[in-house]
Amino acid sequence: MEREADPREVFLSFLQREGLNVTRSRLAVLEALAHLPKHFEAAELWGLVRPRVSAATVYRTLELLQRAGLVRKVEFGEAHAHYERTFGREDHGHLVCRRCGRVWEFPTEASRRAVEEAAQEQGFFLKEVVIQGYGVCAGCRAREGPGV
Amino acid sequence: MEREADPREVFLSFLQREGLNVTRSRLAVLEALAHLPKHFEAAELWGLVRPRVSAATVYRTLELLQRAGLVRKVEFGEAHAHYERTFGREDHGHLVCRRCGRVWEFPTEASRRAVEEAAQEQGFFLKEVVIQGYGVCAGCRAREGPGV
DNA sequence: CTCCATGCAAATCTTTTGCAATCCT
DNA sequence: AGGATTGCAAAAGATTTGCATGGAG
Question: Are B131 and B108 in contact (CB under 8 A)?
Fold first, then answer.
C-alpha cells in the first residue's frame, strides 16, 4: 500500500528546496485547491482567494504548483487553460464533450504503456502523457441527436 | 487498399454542401497547406498567403478546413495553437520535447482502441483521440543533461 | 442582383510583466 | 537588512469581430 505525501508538505519542501519563501498568498492558493473540482480554470481558483490574492499571483503560484508536481495544466480545446490536481489521483485520460464541455475520466495504463514504448525507442525522457478523446457525450446525444 | 479522396475535392464538396462560396482566398489557403510541414502554426500559414489573404481570413478558413476534416488543431503546450493536415496520414500520437519544441510521431492503434472502449462504455460518441507525451528528447538530453 | 466573403482595425480575453511597495527569513 | 514576493496596471499576443466594400453564383 503506497502512501502519498501530504500536498502541503510537498509544497513546503518544494519551496524550501528552491529557496523560495512560504507566503500567505501561496498557502492560500494551495488551500483553495481542496475546494475546487478535479478540473478547474485559473479564474475559478482566483475566485476563491480574491481579493486577498491578485490574479497575477494566482498565475505565478499555479506555475510553482506545477513545478512541485501538485497540479497539471490540461487542455480541453477551449481558449483558456484548465488545471487539475495531481495528488490523490490515478493515471487517467479524458473524454471531453464538445457540446457541454463536461469531462469523463478513464484509466489509461495500457495506452500509457504504448506511449512509453514509443518514447523508449526514441530515447525520449517521458515526463507526462496526455490521452484525450473528443466527441459528444451520451447526455448531449440523447438531448440533441447524434449531430456532429 | 483504401484510396483517400483528393483534399481539393473534399474541400470543394464541403463548401458546396454547406452553401459556401469557392473563393480565391479559400483556395489559396488550401493550396498553401501542401507547402507546410506536417505541423504548423496559423502564422506560418499566413506567411504563405500574405498579403493576398488577410490573417482574419486565414483563421476563418482554418476553421472551415477543420470542419471539412482536412485539418486538425493540436496543442503542444505553447501559448498559440498548432495545426496539422489530416489527409494522407495514419493515426498517430505526439512526443513533444519541452526543451526544443520538436515533435515526434508514433503509431497509436493499440492506445486508441483503449480510448474507444472507454467511450463505448460511456455512450460517448468519439470524434477524435489525442495521445501525447511530453518530456525531453534524446538530442536535448545529450546536449544539456537529463535535467527536468 | 443578392448574399457571402474579405480586409481592416478595433476589440477580446487570458496570461505575463515592470516596478514600487511590502513581506519573509 | 536584503532579497523575494506582491499588487496594480499596463503589456502582450493570439484569435475574433463589426462594418463597409468587393466578389461569387
Answer: yes
Q: Provide the CATH number for the domain formed by B1-87 in this structure.
A: 1.10.10.10
Q: Does A103 touch chain B (CB under 8 A)?
A: no
Amino acid present at B58: V
Query: Which amino acid type is present at position B120?
Result: Q
A69-90: pLDDT as tens digits: 999 999 888 889 999 999 988 8
> A148, A13, A45: which is closest to B68 by C-alpha?
A148
Share of chain B above pLDDT 90, in %: 53
Domain with CATH 1.10.10.10 in chain A: 1-87
Write out residues 11-40 of A within 8 Å (CB-CB) of B.
none
Render pLDDT for B125-138 as a digit per residue (tens, 0 to 9): 888 888 888 888 88
CATH 3.30.1490.190 fits A90-148, yes or no: yes
| pTM to 2 decimal places | 0.86
From the number of C-beta atoms within 10 Å of its C-beta (0-12, 13-18, 19+), residue B55 rates as middle
